Amino acid sequence: MGEKVKKIMVVDDEIGIRDVLYNLFTSKGYEVVTAENGKRALEILKNTRPDLIIIDYRMPQMTGLETLKKIRGFDEKIRVVMLTAFGTPEVQKEALKLGVDDFLNKDMSTAEFIKHAEEVINRLSKPVKPVAAPAKIMVVDDEQGVRDLLKDFFTMRGHNVLPVSSGEEAIAKVELWNPDIILLDIKMPGMDGMMCLKKIKEIKPEVGVVVMTGEESVEIAREAVALGAYEFVMKPFNLEYLDTVILSKIILQP
To answer: What is the dihedral of CA 148, 94, 10, 246, to 10 degrees?
Structure first.
C-alpha cells in the first residue's frame, strides 16, 4: 500500500475518459495501459501487473464490480480506484468489500476531474499512514445507505462507530456516548445539521465535527466553521480523504 505507483491501467468504455486519463498520467511520467472493457482488462492482467487500476463502474457486458471480482482472482492486493457518476452508498459499500482504495466521480467538469484524479494518485503514492489509536465516531445522517457505508468503512479501519439517524438522536446520545469525532449531515428532516452542530458544541465543545453536504456552498461552509466545525466535506464522499481528516483529528487530540 505504501509503494509508489508507476504503472496504471485505465478501464473505461468511454474513449474520452481513457484519453483524458492516459494523457494526464503519461505527462506525469507514469506508464499507462488502457482497456475498453472488463474482458480486455482481464486479458491484459494475464501478462502484466499494474500498480493501480482505475476502473469504471458502469460498463456494458461486464460492470466494474463484476470485473473487480474477477481481478481479485488474479491479485487480492492490487490497488483499485473506481470511476462512477452513480456513486450511491450501496455501490460504494459493495466496492469497499472488494477492496477499493478510493472513488473518482465522473460527474464533474474535465478540469475538476483531472484535479481529483491527480489528488487520488498522489495520495496512493504516499507512504502508509501511521497507525493511530481507534476513535469513537458518531455518524449522523438520515440516509440508511450513508450510515451503513461509513460504519463499514471506519469499522474496517479499527474505529468504534455509532450510526444515528437524526439530529435529535445525536443530541440525546452525544454526552452519554462521548464520541471523539462526529460526521454530521447538513440536510436532515426535523433538526437540521447546523442547529445540531450548534447544540453539540454547547454540550461538548471539544468534539471534532465534520460537516457533510451534497451542496457546494461557501456560505454553508463559513457558517459551519463559525459554529465550530472541524472540516467540511462534499458528497459523494472521497472516503480516503475523509479517512485522512479523521486521522488528522485523532493525532491532534490532546
So the answer is: 30
Percent of the chain with pLDDT over 70: 89
Q: Which of 105, 99, 100 is nearest to 119 (CA)?
A: 105
pLDDT in tens, 127-143: 545 445 688 999 999 99
Cβ 190 vs Cβ 197: under 8 Å: no
CA distances 243 to 88, 137, 138, 192, Å, are 18, 11, 14, 24
Across 75-104, b (16+ Cβ under 10 Å) vs e yields eeebbbbbbbeebebebbbbbbeeebbbbb
Residue 212 in grid coordinates: 457533510
Residue listed under C-alpha cell 481481478: 71
Q: Judge if the upstream peptide bond of residue 236 is cis by omega within 30 degrees of 0.
A: yes
- Grid coordinates representing 112 are 475538476
- Sign for the CA dihedral angle at 112, 29, 123, 91 comes to positive
**What pLDDT is attached to residue 14?**
92
Please provide residue 113's backbone torsions phi and psi, each rounded to the nearest 5 degrees: -60, -45
Choose the weakest-confidence range: 17-31, 91-105, 119-133, 140-154: 119-133
The amino acid at residue 183 is L
Q: What is the tally of helices (H) and strands (E) in the chain?
A: 10, 10
